[in-house]
Amino acid sequence: MAGGGSGGEAKIPDVAILIGSCLVIAAFIMLFWDPSSTIEPPELDVELPPGTSSIGETWQTFDLNDGDEVSLDLDLVECPGEDDSGDCGLVSMAWVEGHDMPSAEDWQHHELKEGGSLETQFDVVSDGEWTLHLRTDSAIELDMDVEHQWLTPWIALFLGMAIAAWGYWMSQQQELSESDSLIVDLSNLSE
Q1: Four-residue CA torsion sign, 15, 19, 24, 28
Q2: Strands (DSSP E) along 86-175, which ranges?
């Protein structure tokens, strides 16, 4: 034991149940937890010229496979400045392979109203790392979902379930063999 104490020997089936359960919990978190993120342009101490606003930029890289589909759901939370009539927020996005900076042709520009939303989809054309670049002059909320063509993200879930089931089955077999040996010992005592 770690604290200098003594404890019983850890049984392999108990360790298998623990490891399998941890894999199942981690797989559920990875597969089904879909956090949204908020992107806001920075607040500057200097006054900008009329008709301009600060731009918030972010990027994130994903390891994707050919045939995966990435769905983006953008909600414009708040427009910049005082005037919110008409299309008031600009959101630009670009997907590039690897860690390159996007060229002018890669960008898609969208004007949204306050409270408006935009849903787009990106189909992955080759295996590897893909980087999403976002620019906005407004506060936006981003929700992303990746539909994998292969069951790769599910491997941890299936593996964890198999390890935990094997550990449980082995612990039941050990209990049966211990109870059988106890019955044999009791019958030997009675003779």
Answers
A1: positive
A2: 89-97, 108-112, 117-123, 128-136, 139-147
Compute mean pLDDT per 10 residues along the chain, 191 residues long, and list them: 66 91 89 77 67 75 86 83 63 89 89 86 90 87 82 84 94 80 61 57
Residue type for 148, please?
H
Short-list 146, 141, 147, CA closest to 36: 141
H/E element holding 70? strand 69-78
Model confidence, pTM: 0.64
6, 46, 83, 105 from 3: Cα distances, Å: 9, 57, 64, 61
Q: Which residues pair with 89 in a beta bridge?
A: 112
